Amino acid sequence: MNLPFPEPTVFAVRAGGTRTISPERGVGS
Length: 29
Prior knowledge:
This protein is mainly alpha-helical and 29 residues long. Helices cover 45% and strands 0% of the residues.
């Protein structure tokens, strides 16, 4: 997973899948 996102973002993606960064990137579900 090579994404240009910060560490906390990547962590969220691996944890739930862009759930915490939903309001930031605009990618929910």
